Amino acid sequence: MDQFKKIIQVAFTYMGTIVGAGFATGQEILTFFTQFGSIATLTIFISSIMFIWLGTKIMIFAHDIGAKSYEDLNKLLFGERLGEWISFFILVVLFAITSVMLAGGGSIFHEHFHLSYQIGLWFTILLAYLVLLKGINAILIVNSIVVPLILLFTVILIFTTIQSPNAGNWLHRTAEPNPLRVWLSPFLYIGFNLSLAQAVLVPIGSQIKDKKIVYWGGIVGGLGIGLMLLAGHFALSAQMPGITQFEIPMGMLIVDLGKAIQFLFLLVIYAEIFTTFIANIYGLTLQIKQRTSLHHQKIMIAILIIGYFISQIGFSTLLSTLYPLFGFLSLGWLWMIMKTKPQV
What InterPro entries has UniProt attached to this entry (predicted)? Predict the structure, then answer.
């Protein structure tokens, strides 16, 4: 039972790291899959197989080489010098996304809970600090609480959509997309998400001693990600094409379900932002610690403080440059993960 519990914790942490705020709002599923019509059901199936295969592979690599941070994995994939540069670029992108996650947490407090934006920022920072003091075990526990909430929300969406007259759209809706975009999108999605998720997948793989737990945790987590992608696609397809006009498509699917469900939805979005936030900070802390002699607690506090100041001014200009660049860089990273064989 203890081994089974650990497998579920690893699986839920993998799912919670991948299933970020973009997933919860529905924008990522809509952009990378649903807009292309019924063919998205096939590309989601392919994505699911790759999440199972490559997510598990990342953690197994980390376990086998005893990686201290994701830089050790990138050095294995790309060699010493190029691996260092790629790790540094990932560090910059992670920092950018971490600042945006913090700003997102503050926005939810301001726009939906009608509290001060600053209160939202400081609450998120303080909660993250308290969780991160406990290390990787606390991240595993937090995701063990948050991911079941996400799964509950997913089940609600499925049962709501089944009653829709357009519930079959996920299998039958036609579109006229560019074939290159259709088949490139899932690989961009997988590469972007996994290359960032390595910040937490690597320490999980290296710090859990039982390789079977790592192996089965990766398989169960990858399968869970695939099922949630499919559920989101199923729900969004039933509302196409009108749903594309909204910034938070998932939010429009629950407006008729009452205030209690809407409040739960907001909690799920905040929880997903928070799990991504703490996972990124944990990965950044390990990476910077490997490059400096600073104590991990000082590094963590510095990241939180700098992130707070950045969240005051927004980050749209930097992100508009980083996201496309990182998306295509992630394809090269994805190819290296696919072709690299485990060390004997």
Answer: YkvI-like
